[in-house]
Amino acid sequence: MIISLIKAFLVGGVLCGFAQILIDKTNLTPAKILTSYVVVGVILGAVGLYEPLVDFAGAGATVPLLGFGNALAKGVREAVDEHGLIGVLSGGITACAAGIAAAVVFSFFAALLVRSKEK
């Protein structure tokens, strides 16, 4: 149990640390870096290289944006196998619907509870 937590912490930390280095040392905007992380996750998931990382690090690999991209690729792959070509359009959305819905609901509640302030 403790070893799996350490692995998740280290892998997730390395992924987030690398993103922070990109923000600090390049002219890339955070939005471009986040989008790039999702795309890299899709690519690594599509070619089968991300699953070993998930097996090793658990939540350290599934929670960051690379994991979201991997979930999209995995959902598309499964939907194409099950429904054919229409799975390309529906698979990623179906696979990530719960996470997207949770983000929207929690963001709504956060917006109700917190008042923004002028800077």
Name the descriptors.
mainly alpha, 119 residues, single chain
Walk me through the structure.
The protein is mainly alpha-helical and 119 residues long. It has one domain (2-113). The protein has six helices and no strands. It has helices at residues 2-25, 30-46, 50-57, 59-62, 65-83, 87-113. Helices cover 83% and strands 0% of the residues. The radius of gyration is 17 Å and the shape is globular.
Quick take:
With 119 residues, the protein is mainly α. It has 6 helices and no strands.
What are the SSEs and their pairings?
Blueprint: H1 2-25, H2 30-46, H3 50-57, H4 59-62, H5 65-83, H6 87-113
Helix pairs in contact: 2-5, 5-6
Q: What overall geometry do the principal axes of the alpha carbons give?
A: globular
Poorly predicted regions = none
- Tally of contiguous helical segments: 6
Beta-strand fraction estimate: under 5%
Mind summarizing the main beta sheet?
A: none
SS-derived structural category: mainly alpha
Alpha-carbon distance between the two ends: 44 Å
| Count of discrete structural domains | 1
